[in-house]
Amino acid sequence: PADARGAAQARATCSPAPVTDVARLCVCDLLVAQCDVNCCCDPDCSPGEFSLFTACSVPVVIGDSHLCRQKAAVYSLDVEANPPERIFQLIDQVNPSIFCIRATNYKQALYLKTPEMPTPENFDGLLDEFGSAAFSAEPESWNVDTDPPDANETQRYEYGLPIQTEDAFLRLPSPVVSSWCSDANPAGFLVNQATKCIRSVSVEKCESIQALNMLFYINSSILAFVFQVKISVQSIVFQSLDGMRTSLRGADGLRLPLILEELCLNVVLGVSYQITYTDTGEIIEAAAAFVLGAITKETLSVQQSFQISFTQVDTKPVPLSGSPGYVVGLPVRAGFSTQGYPFPAQSLTNNHSQLSILQSTPSQDCLAAQGARAPVLFGQNMISGCKLRITAAMKCQPLAQTLLDVLKGQSFPEYVASFGNSQAQDVLDWVPITHLHISEQRISNTLQSSCQIPVSFGIEVKWTKYGSLVNPQARIVNVTATLTTTTLKQLPSGRERTIPITSSVVFTDISSPAEPGYKAWPTINIKLPFDFFYPFV
Prior knowledge:
Blueprint: H1 2-13, H2 47-50, E1 60-62, E2 69-78, E3 85-94, H3 123-130, E4 174-175, E5 181-182, E6 193-200, H4 215-218, E7 222-223, E8 228-229, E9 231-239, E10 245-247, E11 258-260, E12 263-277, E13 283-296, E14 301-312, E15 334-335, E16 356-358, E17 373-375, E18 382-391, H5 396-408, E19 415-417, E20 430-440, E21 451-466, E22 473-488, E23 496-509
């Protein structure tokens, strides 16, 4: 009908302005405040650097490819000019597909609405709304006049992006080529880092060296897009010349370097950042813990340590073992499943959040080793054990329970995290532990006076390489715990016997090999341009 077509045209003509400005969009701009080679849309590149480019790595930049008509930024090089110049054009591009979006007239679809998370209180309501075979995706009130939020409010930090501050980015000094500190290393969002480097110092200039001053690390607020987050001082620890550390209670202010005779006090020796963020990637709090010390006139250099960790708001900080895949040498994360399913937001966790085995002791006495545990480290096969001295006076059943506690611990976990950064609320990212029992039957003339005691406990962790061949991630897919018991007959009075008790962990790589005839790493025989690595040497 004519009135329906008129209403549709009216909605189409009132479509909002494009959210993405293709002239400012650059997908090859990877380096912060530096020119990327052959990235013709990099705003950090100067005309002199453009003249050294050999080609444009991204010649065309567009926004949403589903639109019928949109702006496109076209980049090229004029090699005939002297020197060569970059050419930029902003053109209208038409989508040849008959299935395209003519106008984005539903403004609420231009930004992501935070979904309502299930809780015990609202689960029944969500089940009634979305539990049927079909449900309406339209809101109760279809209001096309509702303006989307400001563009700054929709921007959030993503994994790995540099944390921006007022002047540049949050610095996490680190060694580059040698062991000397470089302040050009930006801290990446959700990237836990720990670095150590050496800084050149002198007592005469310690007050003027910025890197030795607390203010250098907290003077610039973090840009959280909607507002700015100031870095607060969480704690200050003073380290004496002999290495003894003392916590300065109530010291939350600045302590600037101070020259006192032949000493320089309040020199920054370590900084530990603690960043709190929301599930939408918004930084809401930042704190720094400092280690201050003193240097003498003979000191020419000091070692500084820096660390940054991230904690999601309303959650307990849990140490990660990789992001996302496991890192060799870090603990295998484990936990339990408590009541409350399907709401296990905080259920898959334990006091240590680690898989552990029996730790060998110098005495090698099993009865004295109860409680000594060692964490299971990913990729490292381990074996430990102890010796059990059995006398005729020992009762079998209590002895069997004691050995079980020694091998498995007081509370053996039920699940293991498949990735190094698996969160507790992601139930599918946790692998249940399969338990097997092997009994070694031994023939005895006094079967009526014999029982089963555990003698070994083995854990097999099967893992695979997950993701691309270029950067595979270690993922645990199966964990099997095997308990082996043996029949122990009653000893005659006055007799003793010693048996070995063992515990082990084995990691097995079950990654599928490359298919026959498939070249996983092809050889490319080319000659690079002479300026391929510009501006790097």
